[in-house]
Amino acid sequence: MNLDHLALFVRLATTHNISMAGKELGLSAAVSSTYINKLEESLGVKLVHRTTRKVSLSEEGQAFLPHAEEVLANVALARASVGSGSLIPQGKLRVTAPASFGRMHIIPALNDFLTRYPDLTLDLRLSDSIVDMVEGGFDIAIRDAALADSSLIAKKLARDKRIICASPAYLKKYSQPQTPEQLSQHKCVNLHGLDTWQFTVDNKPQSIKTNTVLFADNGEAVRDACAQGIGITLMSTWCAYEKLKSGELVQILADYPLISNTAIWAVYPSARLLAPKVRAFIDYFSEYYGQTPYWEAATNS
Questions:
Q1: Using CA atoms, how far apart are residues 248 and 242, in angstroms rounded to an integer?
Q2: What does DSSP assign to residue 264?
């Protein structure tokens, strides 16, 4: 069984695109297609279903994938044991992350990260839309929502504490709400889909449908609109911490904690064969953010 054929098949399982998988391994589309055909012929089964748009694994392909990964992992370990191979993070690492979080908390760390791992090339895609990481061929997705796809693995990188905040100018003009119920008398700024806020009141959950005057699809836009006095908002401390520190925003309703099960997660397709480049990224940013993320420390000081 040809190892090059196995390597292409494993990459194809992530990219769902023969040309893309082959390109990452330095192969032409024609050669890549031939490799997959030869692997299927050697096994006597159909490993992939092909359409004009993408490739998906057959039932036999899904069953074969973990064994192919294990073979490649064992070969890499064997080569490294005699000095002919390397487990040093290398190659292209494709990461997708929310736009605001990526700009604020990934980009500032990349100089040190890439200096530490000079054999890595990073392809970073920032978008506030939920990206299909498997179809998009991503190695890692950074997310701040619960993991819905059970075929993916999630590693918690940091806490995501959310608070209610407003600008001093807004509070001076409209007064400060003292209870969640009083939010109905106020203007609010929200991300799309986050206009109902859940609090704990007298040890019971309470949902408040806010009076939203501005929706936006970007966390920094919501934060800046709130700081301009347009309305009250619910926001993660990782996004608001600089303006809380400067006094442009202040936390309100602190006695009524939000019901929130959010965190910053690194999501990846499989834990069976965790590539050195993926492990390096996860380990680095887990350490970078720390047990108490620096944005929380800044708001508590």
A1: 9
A2: E
Q: Tell me if 101 sits within 8 A of 264, measured CB to CB.
A: yes
CA dihedral of residues 137, 140, 144, 148 (deg, nearest 10): 60
> What is the length of the chain?
301
Cβ atoms within 10 Å, residue 149: 12
Residue 156: its H or E element: strand 153-159
Name the nearest CA neighbour of 146 among 260, 287, 282: 260
- For residue 207, give the 3-state DSSP assignment: strand
Q: CA-to-CA distance for 3 and 217, rounded, in angstroms?
A: 45
What does the alpha-carbon distance between residue 175 and residue 125 come to, in Å, rounded to a whole number? 41
Alpha-carbon span 165 to 233, nearest angstrom: 6
Cα separation of 98 and 222, whole Å?
A: 14
Residue 258 carries which DSSP code? B
> pLDDT tens digit string along 23-66?
888 899 899 999 999 999 999 999 998 876 678 889 898 889 88
β pairing state of 188-191 and 212-216:
parallel
Q: Return the axis-axis angle of helices 59-81 and 3-15, rounded to nearest 10°.
A: 120
Output the six-digit token pair for 149.
């796809």
Could you read off the pLDDT of 150-177 as tens digits, one per residue?
Answer: 667 889 999 889 999 999 999 999 999 9
- pLDDT tens digits, 121-140: 899 999 887 777 766 778 89
Tokens of 141: 């997705």
* pTM for the structure as a whole: 0.73
Separation between Cα atoms, residue 50 and residue 150, nearest integer Å: 24
